[in-house]
Amino acid sequence: MSDEKNEGVLARWGEGLKAKSSSLKAKVVELLRKTKKLAKDDPRRIVHSFKVGLAITLVSLFYYFEPLYDGLGASAMWAVLTVVVVFEFSVGATLGRGLNRVLATSLAASLGFGAHFLADLAGDKAQPVILSLSVFIFAAITTFIRFFPRIKARYDYGFLIFILTFCLVSVSGYRDDEILQVAYRRALTILLGTFIAILICLFICPVWAGDDLHSLVSNNIQLLANFLQGFGVQYSNESKEDELLEGCKSVLTSRQTEESLVNFARWEPRHGAFKFRHPWKQYRKIGSLTRQSAYRLESLNSYLVTETQTPLHIRDRLMKSCSKMSIESSNALEDIASDLRTMTQPTFPNPHIEKSKAAMKDLKAALKIGPGDGDIDLLEIVPIATVASLLIDTISCIEKIAESVGELGSLANFKCVEAGKSSGLELEQEHQKLPNSAIVNDHCHVVIVD
Amino acid sequence: MSDEKNEGVLARWGEGLKAKSSSLKAKVVELLRKTKKLAKDDPRRIVHSFKVGLAITLVSLFYYFEPLYDGLGASAMWAVLTVVVVFEFSVGATLGRGLNRVLATSLAASLGFGAHFLADLAGDKAQPVILSLSVFIFAAITTFIRFFPRIKARYDYGFLIFILTFCLVSVSGYRDDEILQVAYRRALTILLGTFIAILICLFICPVWAGDDLHSLVSNNIQLLANFLQGFGVQYSNESKEDELLEGCKSVLTSRQTEESLVNFARWEPRHGAFKFRHPWKQYRKIGSLTRQSAYRLESLNSYLVTETQTPLHIRDRLMKSCSKMSIESSNALEDIASDLRTMTQPTFPNPHIEKSKAAMKDLKAALKIGPGDGDIDLLEIVPIATVASLLIDTISCIEKIAESVGELGSLANFKCVEAGKSSGLELEQEHQKLPNSAIVNDHCHVVIVD
């Protein structure tokens, strides 16, 4: 009896264990799948991880070798800390952080030394009071300065490090008699750490924020082109695809990444086809126009989903023009995207924009309803009229996008290719590998978890 | 002659100096104006600056008083560092950073100690090799883990600190014979710094990310209500206001701040009307629906700017319904915003939504065109038809917003007020002070500089 009971308990226990181990197994498999996807979406992530490991290991060598250690002593720790904190995914972000850190440290160390010197003059009793007061005032003012939007965008980290170093130097000066040596060693190790981080980030498979910005902005235009293409075909075929809408929505959410990338790219030196003072800010303008037409297309989408009740004879007349308009607009956007990608000066006026304008005229003519059409419930025409009107709106947006890409072209001296566009093919192949979601995930601080 | 020349030079020099000083003066005045505006937009910024100054000064006292210093020694520096790095604007952000830092430090310190112990066993020659290898592997793996979106959203800082501490402990263990003491002191000082930062952040005029999220989401709904109200009036009056459009556009760009605030708010304890496990994620849903109707309204706007050429007799018929629809929708949104703000369970069905649906029916009836209307150029009706159709679309969006606020209400046990809504007035007054731009600027890492 007892044996049976025991067996029953054992069996249940075994089953429980089995269930748990199989659910654990499922979780591990899921984790591996996600890891693989993460690495596959953007292989640069693996390279980046190895680069960080290499940089930290290199810096930690200072501890192991006597001659290196003797020069720096325990301060070598600051070099390790610097590498960990400064090493970012893109060259621009790393350079920005590194420069901020080095400049802020130097400035704060000298000011902290000055505060210490002044406090020293005031005598033993007053010293802590003066030091505390200066720490309080500097910390409060610097914290407030960090709220200025322009400073927050590019120098936030520098101001943080400024408070940090000022406090460390001025406060530890109270105890440490070798304050000059402390400040000097701290500055030197931070310089060293920053140097190693920048060196490895720059020379081993560098990730350029500028490249990613360039791809992101041209990808976004391409996504709109795809959407319009699909829309034009759908309007005659009645098939719908969620993927295209997802693409269009991802354009709407890429603003903050674009902004980060512009800020990073501005730190970057000349690389590839981009010069040092490449007009990065112009990308912001193109991006915002792209989003403006994405708003239109997003609204357009609801007229695909709602059943259209337009009377057939009017519908046929209008549909052809609408379809033509969206396909020509899509071609125009595709042209713009490929010109941007290959850094070619776009041709003015774009033939596809002209064609879609012609289709617009046809549409307008088709909208004239004679007495032969009989009674009309305007309500039935509303959906297709809305589509027409949003498409007309989109064309003027596309013209603005073409203009701003043209401006970028003249600012950045894009090459002029009159006949044939094959020369930019390498650049195109090089730039079109990454999906937008990977770029957004790589560079943005705030990640949206759906 | 020479005198005259000298005088001329002096005069020019004086003029140059004057011009320079006046331009400098203008710049200083401009800076003061901006500073004042920054402080006025959100006075909590000044309070925050003083709080940071106070926290750092408090921590630096450890250096000045013998008994405190004797316990911690030079490690007291880590406490200063911790306060500077952990102290964020909102309680949620500070708690998140602090917990990340403390947990990551403890875990990494014990692992680093383990690595040191293992390397010790391997003998003098192999020790640096084993240590370097473990640093490389841990750094690379941790860096890769930081790419997982879910981890990046909430634990990014923790993983950064993990690498940092692991390297520091395992590497400095090679030199330092008192490694246990080093690890212990580091952990203790970091705990101390975090404790002081959290204490001051929590008890002196705390800024709750949850409160700001709540205001941001309800403000956004209110902005749409204002826009629709203005639209309804404009459609009869032909006056236009840029401010309303700006409000609508700011809704479109608040997504990332909303996401940050959700992540911060989830760290926060019970405060005010919010419980510990307040359903913060539901705000994400309401926010995204709000943005969805903002897209519609943004498209709507272009039909105000374009000159409407609709024939008068049809226009008059339609305009009244359109105007009514947008004003009723606006009232519905205003209701929802105020219910959310005062945390009142919204009434179902919302009477204003019902009224705007009735207006929609009128509009649909008005869209029937009989033979008496004569020849019609559909093109002339397109603008107003589009407006009608976008408005109809907006109503269904508003219904969804009302639903999701209702869901939030039942998840968070909003109070039910059947008759009169005066009871929530205090909360309303408390919550409506800040403009969205201030909230976005305070909490977002990436700031857009226009």
UniProtKB/TrEMBL annotation, chains A, B:
It is a multi-pass membrane protein. One of its GO terms (cellular component) is membrane. Pfam families: ALMT. InterPro entries: ALMT. GO terms for biological process: malate transport; monoatomic ion transmembrane transport. Belongs to the aromatic acid exporter (TC 2.A.85) family. It comes from the Eukaryota. The lineage of its organism: Eukaryota, Viridiplantae, Streptophyta, Embryophyta, Tracheophyta. This is Aluminum-activated malate transporter 2-like.
